[in-house]
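Hi L., both proteins are below.
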Amino acid sequence: MKSAPAPKRPSPSPGTKIGASPAPSSSNEPELLARRCPAAGWLIRRAQSDAPLTANQMHVLIHIFAPLGTKGALYLHRMLRDRDTYHPDELNRRLHAVSPQPMGCETVRRKLSPDHPREACCCVFSLPEGGYPAPLVHLDRIPKVAGRMRKNPGAPDVDGDGRIHGDLSRRTRARAEWRRLKKGKDRRGREK
């Protein structure tokens, strides 16, 4: 008696690496981020062990999971609810105060530096132009540099940091005009 042939597995689409991790579904993104990002995993394990969290550690924990929206917020509530210091209203307030620009890896390392071993957070990413390393890259979400921070060839770069500081020439001219008008006058604008 012959056995039925095994069903064929669908062949991967062109360009897909065989054995590559599938794209995370939105339901398990927080757990996946905690597993893939060493800093997030370290903070979650620390929170679950009832070890005290410093203000910086709590700040980083919130900023890592807040960009995941409701799923990230629910995950944080679930991880922190057994702690003595857990206040759901305070956590919600802090989650809603997070800016839409995700926290980068350098900021995470800097804020956790006294407590967190630097070797545990040494992820290397290959990112496209305009992207920056952040914990969300572990979920294939590549944050982009905000528009005000992006180097603009037409804008002046006074201190060499790549930030746009507005139209400095217009501001400089206005200030010089103000000084010229102010010269020789007292605080009330009267001639000296």
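That was the first. Here is the second:
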Amino acid sequence: MNQSMSAVPSDYRSPHRWQFAGFAIALVALGLVLAPMPAPAQMFAPWGNGAALPFLQGPTLADTLRNGAQMASDQSRITAQFAQEMSQRARRPGYQMQNFVADYQNLDYQFQNLRSTFNALVQLALQLQSSRAANAAAELEAGLNIISEGFIPMQQEMQAGTFSRDPVQRMCGALNEALLEWQKELKRCSSRLGMI
């Protein structure tokens, strides 16, 4: 019997070995306790399964709506600023067709980001099942639809393969003003969208 004990390596009989094992078990237990638990109820995500909100989700629907409205407002400001900068670049004598195409694609990208952020915000606001929220969303959506018509002359210029600096400057100036006005309207409508 004494020989069988000596056949076991001494580090298995060491009290430090058991302390390490106890520490490892405690660490695993702590990890399981702190692991994120699935939420009992999730909000409906209309922008696709697995896709993240284009804005930060708050602890409550009202907080998430506020975050979404702020993100849409910020994106509107960014898009308006880009339109203004595009107008300024178009004034330069070296502004060529390739500059116009790159600027137009970037402006369109910013506007599409605004639309997708706003659409996610609207889908959340409609969960409130409020006619006030639905009406405010419809009014703001109509505003974005009108603003999107400002892209048509620039699209026609691109398709024709030509562009004139003056119309590009005027259209970018009009887009800038319209987007800033839409941003103000979003702030005015925020209480109707369900944000306190």
